[in-house]
Amino acid sequence: MTRTKPIHLGVHFPGVNNTTVWSDPGSGSQIEFSSFEHLARRAEAAKLDFFFLAEGLRLREHKGRIHDLDVVGRPDTLPVLAALAAVTDRIGLAGTINTTFNEPWELARQFATLDVLSGGRAAWNLVTSSDAFTGANFRRGGYLQYDDRYARAGEVVEVARALWDSWDDDAVLGDPSSAAFLRPGAVRRVDHHGRFVDAVGEFTTPRGPQGHPVLFQAGDSSDGREFAARAADVVFSAHATYDDGRAFYDDVKGRLAAYGRDRDSLKILPAVTVTLGATAAEAEERARHIRRQQVSGPTAIAFLEQVWGRDLEAYDPDGPLPDVEPDVDGASITRGRVRHVRDPLAVARAWREQAAANRWSIRDLVIAVTTRGGFVGTPEAVAADIERHVHEDAADGFILVPHLTPGGLDDVFDQVVPLLQERGSFRREYAGTTLRDHLGLARPAVARPVDAGVAELVG
Amino acid sequence: MSAPSTASARRRGPLVHLGVDLTDAGAHPAAWRASGSRPERVFDAARLTELVARAQSGLLDFVALDDAFTLQPRSGGVRGRLDAALVAARLAPRSAGIGLVATVDTTHTEPFHVSKAIATIDHVSQGRAGWQVAWSTSDAAAAAFGRKPPQSEADAIEEADEAAHVIARLWDSWEDDAEIRDVATGRFVDREKLHYVDHEGIRFAVKGPSITPRPPQGRPPVVVPVTGDDALRLAASRADVARVQAATAEEAGELRDRLRSAAQDAERDPDELRVLVDANVVLGADEPTARARFELLQDLDDARWDGSLAHVGTAHTLTSTVEEWVRAGAADGFVLRPASLATDLDAVVAHTVPALQRLGLFRTAYPGTTLRDTLGLARPANVFATSA
Prior knowledge:
A: disordered C terminus, LLM class flavin-dependent oxidoreductase (chain B), Luciferase-like_sf (chain B)
């Protein structure tokens, strides 16, 4: 084996959680297009694989009111990606779309459109949802059972792929001397009747340059992992540390064989933050500073309230932990985000002991228990770390998450990526034009339905 | 309820509004086969970008992008569509001044999705988005979604009306100054300035607020195609721009009068509603050339043009028609539907626009940066804002 395993790198636009520091003087708009353009163009200049945009379909709430301590509000995912297609040429454009609150006919034509308009750079990060909280914004409401999330998601993907495959690649004949705009037989009727979706008819939109847009999957449950092994091209993983990453990588890649898939056909990319410094100590100090910006006093109290299940506003974030016990019967007081604590009493006990032993305030403790690692160090050390994770199968690459909008990764582009390029472990130029090319993923051929009676010719 | 119009007071004399429809390869089904057309480029973003630049060089009000969930049934015309909202977003960073009007359905698309899509086009274009309301009545569109049976025109328009109401509320669900970034208290937004829309309708319920802050225009202009009496009522109550079909100035004038009086009945200032007539245009250097072009297209595909104005003639006679109709109060302007986008848009920009400018009937520069500025419409106050 002389082949070097390639590293894949994406960038995540800063989201609506406390990773994003909005209080810093260097923090820019979360809404203006110039912020999105800055990050996408800088990432493209550094030859990264893709730009990633997350989504949430209801503003988060805490104690029955809109959570106001983190960034609130975001533009609509797909129109932003379509606009970015106008100001970039090569970088992939990935966006989250929820399968519970979107219908396959509509989302298939949106992603086909994005793929056509971007010259083959579209990617869909599939997420599922079962909560009535988000459902209150939609016709569907919160009807979906938790266990049915991936059953519906699987059917939505199946229908979307059937729709993309219902147009041949060369369906547009483009011969002015002919009276037919489409080549006869090149567009086939889709006739799907399933448990969750009925979709029948002639699809409207040409097949994109990638055939199927790249499919990301971000769920971490066993169902989510199984779904990724069966259907996804990329896993957006939460397992960024080395040991955690190795275990996750093994688990998910190990599931591929059952679906007749090659280990290289699914890329595992953990999300990760990067903090640089001229020395290791300087980087550590910077990371500590950023963590304090991310966890303000009110944010620390709000975090504790999620575990305690009760109002703790009377407590001083710079003082000791609350002596009152968590309200274990109280329903979750935070909605619109995922956070599970199995045994609040035990957690509270452990945290009190930890805080007392280290003389930590509430804020110190919250910083300690919410720090997720990430790469911290000199550019040389971070580049070596990224290589090690990839070469030793803890990841196929990373999705870089900045703490500042829009310039939070500029130092990584300027200082880390060139080192990876010098070492020959990251591309200096794009070899292809599509995101599938960048990720080394095969382009799917048109899958024609087996039953010709169902596939009525309409072209 | 209706605010006094500052927009009408600002307007000096009759100024013509001109939009251009960029659907397919042109309004004539054979346009893709006509000279100058390149059918392999119909779905090419670069072609659309060039057309927008052309329209913008003529200072036109907006480009309109049609859409539907069904494939065009005619075998001779262009078949295939891109999602109009995403096309509008794709066109935004490479244009300035010109409005981008995307057609989005209300029968099958969730109102929450429509609201944030149009708001986002407005953000990425810095205030140049417009929304053309669409509704679906076909069996084919219903079968594509499989969620509900096909609806009658009247029922679908009622639903469009409910959706347009909720979408406007969602645009208002963030007050303009909701984002405060108050470092002292750690608050990013003032949540008193974010509002639940709490819509509980017969057809759908939407809680809100939107996930997207209020668009730069407050509420991007709403365009309603007037296809009949129900659509006319919808336009009168919800539209900023009504697209009507009329073959004669008398017909157009009657429609405009009806729209304005219905707007008044809906407690709106009729001067806040622009009535634009759809006009199919085939232009030539002289009348025989124009007629020959039209006959050539008809030879390729013997299409029946719809009931609206069809102008087959020179750019000069088009100018006269526009002048005549607008001076007679029959229309506030036109949505031009070039028979062939590869040919007729150039003629409009090169000849009709300068002629109208010489008559003092058309702008010589964009008056501002937003589509509302161009249409002479005031930025609406927020219905949720409490400040006196």
